[in-house]
Amino acid sequence: MASRLNPYISFAGDARQAMEFYKEVFGGTLALNTYGEYGDSDAPEAANIMHGMLETPAGFTLMGADSPPGMASTPGTNISVSVSGDDESELRGYWEKLSADGSVSVPLERQMWGDVFGMCTDRFGIAWMVNIRGQQG
């Protein structure tokens, strides 16, 4: 699979409603995963969206999620750029260049959903997420 670059929006508890709205606007297929599917299903935020992805017939991809517990969602600073795919070498190369002279908020490492994932802000203040699908080790 080729790497993909798309916007990723953080919401303050209404990601499900927002992503369903965008599906009404653009059409396509919407996949939603909750925090409860990957953690404590009894936690207050268990029904919140951990990851949502809308893929449209026009070829658009829009991702979004509710901000994790303890992390603020501030309109105007709640959009990141996501780069994802399964080419580990290519994506690690992007990560190294994007995070150089920037700041890393989540190190590029294996996450609870099984992928290698990291978040950084580049030297120009742009937030990036890199996700390497299906990597073992």
From TrEMBL:
Spell out the PANTHER family in the cross-references: PROTEIN YJDN (PTHR33990:SF1), PROTEIN YJDN-RELATED (PTHR33990)
Q: Name one Pfam family in it.
A: Glyoxalase
Source organism superkingdom: Bacteria
CDD domains to which the protein is assigned, alphabetical: PhnB_like (cd06588)
- Transmembrane stretches, by residue range? none
Protein name per UniProt: 3-demethylubiquinone-9 3-methyltransferase
- Ranges for domain Glyoxalase/fosfomycin resistance/dioxygenase: 5-130
Native organism is Streptomyces graminofaciens
**Cited Gene3D superfamilies:** 2,3-Dihydroxybiphenyl 1,2-Dioxygenase, domain 1
